[in-house]
Amino acid sequence: MADLDVIATTREGAHEAAKEAYRIAQDLIERGKRVRIVSKEDEDDRTLAANRWYWGVVLREISEQARIDGVRYTAEAWHELFKRQFLGFEIKKVAVAGRKKPTIIRRLRSTTTLSIKKFSKYLEQVQSFAVTDLGVTFSSDWYE
After folding, report:
1. Which residues of 12-26 are buried (b: 16+ CB within 10 A; e: fewer)?
2. pTM value > 0.70
């Protein structure tokens, strides 16, 4: 049976989605399964324009201007540092064949899964750090 993942934009659409979720939940419960029902505000993923700006302006200017102990780092290296500093790690339990207990995996969070709001906050953190701690001056021509 497929999962239900619906974005509703009208009351009627939300009602239809809720009825379908109820039907699926009934079927799963009858088969002895647990059911998770989640309803939350939908957020758009970060935009391609924001991603281009992050890599083409923010990280590029940081990599051109910033030095740590006299060493210049690539945009990719700065990206890894900022993910570690501002996004952190996620912990997941994964079933592995032949093992009774799940394996714990620690994985660095990715910027690709951030919503527009969360990516905007991340960008503010990166830029603030770059300006205050690294002395980076962002050019004004990227606003045009």
Report:
1. eeeeebeeebeebbe
2. no
Three-state DSSP class for residue 24: helix
Tell me the fold of 48-143.
Answer: NinB fold (1.10.3790)
The amino acid present at 140, given as its one-letter code, is: S
Q: Are the C-beta atoms of 96 and 60 separated by less than 8 Å? A: no
Highest mean pLDDT among 8-17, 57-66, 104-113: 57-66
Q: What digits encode the pLDDT tens for the residues 42-53?
A: 766 678 888 889
Spatial separation of the C-alpha atoms in residues 36 and 39, rounded to whole Å: 10
Question: By the 8 A CB rule, do 115 and 46 touch?
Answer: yes
Intervals of CATH 1.10.3790.10 along the chain: 48-143
